[in-house]
Design a protein that fits this description.
The chain is mainly alpha-helical and 410 residues long. Helix content is 79%, strand content 0%.
């Protein structure tokens, strides 16, 4: 089948290309023939249609459905309105940036394709078929989980709030709004993961040409014991590896440049919804009223958004780990080599690794597990503040309930 006929990075990203194109952030479509390249008369209608569409979607979610009225809490309701408005701003920003960074995305894909061809020259091959299947599964699972949670949510809303406005149009608008956030995160995560696969392949290639373990008698003493190829071949391969590593660092910088802004805003949005939904879950367990299930459902939505952040942080951490691993392999190879020329080139490569290592960052912070711990700590801090406000200023539900008990007693 043509869909599964994959021979390069363009074919690998084909499922992501379709997802981003139909979501509105696919102006720079991935493919061997880039979409609307230099055709402004096609680009303007494409961007204009999606800007109008998501403006209407946000109007339906905020003013027609009015999710903030379902919670009977000023804090949670205000938080949900802020979330919806912030998501609308992120959507518009992502659509615009997809056009602004179009040429950079093309450079990113071209550079990845060149790296794959260079890896073939040193007997290392990227399994594009496997990568394509992983990208396809990621896209399908994302859409399946999104549709399932959305339909479950609306079914719960109709039970808990019989007056809730519910039809096909409102469901479609809510799906579109949540899908664009997931698409932005999936897009950045997959591009970072693609770069990570190349770092892993480069490390495997280095281990193939340069032994990293000494013999049983200690350090190896003869060339036949240390090398799987001649000294000349080792020097030629090492030169190619150094060039490829430098190009991969360029790829990481392009990923940061093209996707870090959108990802950063999505991470910030996840933090906001985390504080609000955690507070809603607290109220659900404390008051145990008819909105208990809604509080639990909102927390499930938070876990859904948090999953994308966790996956992106995991990929960013793996890229940094792969960058450090090749440095360890270089120093092991220095200890095992007996050729002064090879050792000298390995020392130069070690300096290159020291001065330039891959890091996924937005410029403000690095996407690693430390960021997750910081988010958890900040969420706990703001949650305590919201709980104190909620205790100091009872909501309308508690006030009405107290009044009703007082009247009944009198």
């Amino acid at each position: 089948m043509k869909w599964f006929s994959v021979h390069n990075v363009y074919g690998t990203l084909r499922p992501l290309a379709h997802l981003t194109t139909f979501s509105g952030v696919g102006y720079a479509l991935y493919g061997s023939a880039p979409f609307v390249t230099g055709q402004l008369w096609l680009a303007i209608p494409y961007l204009g249609c999606f800007v109008s569409f998501y403006t209407y979607v946000s109007y339906v979610v905020i003013y027609v459905q009015q999710f903030d009225t379902l919670t009977n809490s000023i804090i949670i309701g205000t938080g949900e309105q802020i979330f919806a408005l912030s998501l609308f701003v992120i959507v518009l920003l992502s659509i615009v940036l997809s056009a602004v960074f179009k040429s950079k995305v093309y450079d990113l894909l071209r550079l990845l394709h060149e790296i794959d061809l260079s890896l073939l020259d040193i007997r290392t091959r990227i399994d594009h078929q496997k990568c394509h299947r992983i990208v396809l599964i990621a896209v399908l699972v994302t859409l399946f989980v999104l549709i399932t949670i959305t339909l479950t949510s609306f079914w719960t809303y109709t039970i808990l709030a019989p007056d809730f406005y519910f039809d096909f149009e409102t469901v479609l608008c809510y799906l579109a709004q949540t899908n664009i956030n997931a698409t932005i995160m999936v897009q950045g995560t997959i591009m970072a993961w693609i770069a990570r696969e190349r770092y892993s392949a480069l490390n495997a290639c280095f281990r193939m040409y340069f032994p990293t373990t000494p013999s049983s008698g200690g350090f190896l003493t003869t060339q036949t014991e240390t090398a799987v190829c001649t000294e000349k071949e080792q020097l030629a391969v090492l030169k190619q590896i150094k060039i490829l590593h430098d190009k991969l660092n360029d790829v990481v910088e392009l990923v940061n440049y093209c996707f870090s802004v959108q990802i950063t805003f999505c991470v910030g949005l996840c933090f906001v919804i985390g504080v609000v939904c955690s507070f809603g879950l607290f109220r659900a367990f404390i008051y145990r009223n008819e909105l208990f299930y809604m509080g639990v459902l909102n927390f499930i939505w938070y876990m859904y958004y948090l999953f994308f952040v966790l996956f992106f942080i995991a990929v960013g951490s793996k890229i940094t780990r792969e960058g450090k691993r090749i440095g360890v392999l270089v120093h092991k190879a220095i200890n095992c080599s007996t050729s002064s020329a090879v050792i000298n080139e390995l020392n130069i490569f070690s300096q290159q690794l020291l001065h330039r290592s891959p890091v996924i960052t937005c410029g403000l912070f690095v996407y690693d597990w430390t960021l997750l711990y910081t988010m958890i700590g900040a969420t706990a801090t703001y949650l305590i503040i919201l709980i104190q406000f909620d205790v100091s200023f009872p909501n309308l539900v508690n006030v009405n309930g107290t009044a009703a008990v007082t009247q009944g007693g009198s």
